[in-house]
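Weekly puzzle thread! Below is a chain. First person to post its structure in token form gets bragging rights.
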Amino acid sequence: MPCGEDRARSFDACDQASGRVSSLSLLRYKTNDYSVPVAYGHREVWIRAYVDRVVIGCGGEVIARHVRSYDCEDMVFDPVHYLPLIEKKINAFEQAAPLAGWELPKAFDTLQKLMEARMLKAGRREYVQVLRLLESFEMEEVHAAVKTALQMGAISFDAVKHLVLCRVERRPPRLDLDVYPFLPRAKVATTSPASYMCLTTGAST
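Winning reply:
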């Protein structure tokens, strides 16, 4: 094979650049900003811009991939990039701009409501921990684990993580369901006979 043909095949058809990540974990390329994981704030990174996507890396590691925007002054977020910060500042969860418009499967919303109903603010933080599984696993895997957890009544980050790992490793889950309550306990008081007498009296007057 001629050397020239080998070089042509190995050519990466993209615009290559470099830049520094801002304090908001954003990197400017052309006229738009693209997010990177918060751990890379203020770091020097490289950019490879293709026709349809932008790939960002640090050293020999790819740290972000985005669909390329051709708008002007656009901000392209990956919500997963900001989850470590939101976990620490959980009060910002509802107002966090990077999460705006993030369309998750319905099972995630159900999981969040159950966690918050059981543990309030701590439940919201645990829900964010579930979302952080998306840092390491595909959406399909985490979504399947969340649905299984809901079906089993195992509403817990540890349970969802266990189910994800079992799915990836192709082994059956082993959960003690007694330690995974999924709804607040309701206190039902015994009705006094006098209460019924009051109702009867009211009806006869």
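Puzzle host: Confirmed. Bonus trivia for everyone else. The first strand starts at residue 15 and ends at 20.
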